[in-house]
Write a structure and sequence with these properties.
Blueprint lengths: L2 H8 L3 H14 L4 H13 L3 H11 L10 H10 L3 H8 L6 H13 L3 H8 L7 H13 L3 H9 L8 H11 L4 H14 L1 H24 L1
Helix pairs in contact: 1-2, 2-3, 3-4, 3-5, 4-5, 5-6, 6-7, 7-8, 7-9, 8-9, 9-10, 10-11, 11-12, 11-13, 12-13
Length: 214
């Protein structure tokens, strides 16, 4: 990674950083680090299709194209091409980053047990991993475990999403506490709260309708 360019990017000079990396790639098209740095920035800026194109072109130019696999897998994942993402991730040694991305991808594919198996083997469990574990437990209908995972995230680092899902996972056992979590989520991000609550209400209605038909 070019540290000077990274400094520019971190200071908000995104266009300048990207322009310099494009120049470096033009000068040395075989140097893999520039593709990795540029594709990471493009993904972070939401230009995922550009990152994918860049990495696919780079595969034919660099000596070790397999080193591009992780970033390319993330690009595929973010565009909803989960099978392609997994095919690449399966070629990468299982470090924490790869395990996290595999768990995320299997969760999106609706294969929650597989997602859980990968997530539980991650060695360094940070807030991001706790959130993923909570999401997986929720998808399995295991609200107590989900709540436990979300509560491991310190209060000052919880998002509206975390507070909302704490509300959902707590609702059965402690309605008052759940309402407090929902209120916190709403105060932090009202748009997200309304969207999430609409989805939650729709799911609950569907489940109730199914129960009535039995």
């Amino acid at each position: 990674m070019d540290k000077k360019i990274a400094q520019l990017y971190d200071n908000g000079k995104v266009d300048q950083a990207i322009h310099l990396l494009v120049q470096k790639i033009d000068q040395k098209p075989q140097k893999i680090e520039n593709y990795l740095q540029l594709s990471t920035y493009l993904i972070e800026q939401g230009s995922v299709d550009q990152a994918q194109q860049l990495l696919e072109q780079a595969q034919h130019l660099v000596k070790k194209p397999q080193e591009l696999n992780y970033n390319l897998a993330v690009s595929y994942y973010m565009q909803g091409d989960f099978d392609k993402a997994l095919a690449l991730l399966d070629q990468i040694p299982n470090d924490d980053l790869t395990l996290y991305q595999k768990a995320l991808t299997y969760l999106k594919l609706g294969q929650s047990q597989k997602a859980l198996a990968y997530a539980l083997t991650i060695k360094k469990v940070d807030d991001k991993v706790q959130e993923l574990l909570g999401d997986i437990w929720m998808s399995l209908g295991e609200n107590a475990q989900a709540q436990q995972a979300y509560l491991m995230i310190p209060k000052d680092r919880r998002t509206a999403k975390i507070y909302f899902l704490l509300g959902v996972s707590t609702m059965e056992k402690d309605r008052t506490q759940a309402e407090a979590y929902f209120a916190k989520a709403k105060a932090m991000d009202e748009k997200y709260y309304k969207r999430a609550m609409d989805q939650y209400a729709s799911i609950m209605k569907m489940l109730n309708d199914k129960e009535k038909k039995k």
